[in-house]
Predict the 3D structure of the following.
Amino acid sequence: MQRGINRRSCFRRHEDFRSYLAALGETSGHYDVSIYSFVLMPNHVHILAMPAREDSVSRMMQQLGRKYVSYFNKAHSRTGTLWEGRFRSSMINSERYLFACYRYIELNPVRAGLARSARDYKWSSYRANAMDLPDGLVQASSEWLALGKTDGARAKSYQQLFASGTEDHDEQIRVALRKGRPLV
């Protein structure tokens, strides 16, 4: 998770969101990091990723931050930092939390009142994971692949995961992110 400094907006227009996603695609490919889920909120970002190497996520986020801040500062005639310090992360050491994290991330716009449902929010991975609409960025986790025999069946099973409650895990996820602790 990475938050805009002083909780300020880090995306002001659609082109900002598109630029960030393009940079995320480029840097995740360069550092061999699989992106499973993401959401770009007006003042912060959540990414669920699986690195090929131990330092891949840190290096990806550092390069992504540099690329996007350079773009944003030029596009909006500003200088200085955009992010509130280093990104925060938490390892997921339990399969039971994996889909809870997918839901936590992709339901963020609904909780924030930016969308009525996850499918209505354009700047997340929900459409790729739940509606079988590939976006060129999201990759399938082995757990997502186990949801069904076809992509359509997997997407339908994934949608059903969103019908179940998530509140019980939400606070645990928030605490793990805030303190940098693994979810076990």
In short: The beta strands are 2-3, 33-40, 44-51. The chain has two domains: 2-75, 95-179. The two ends are 18 Å apart (CA to CA).
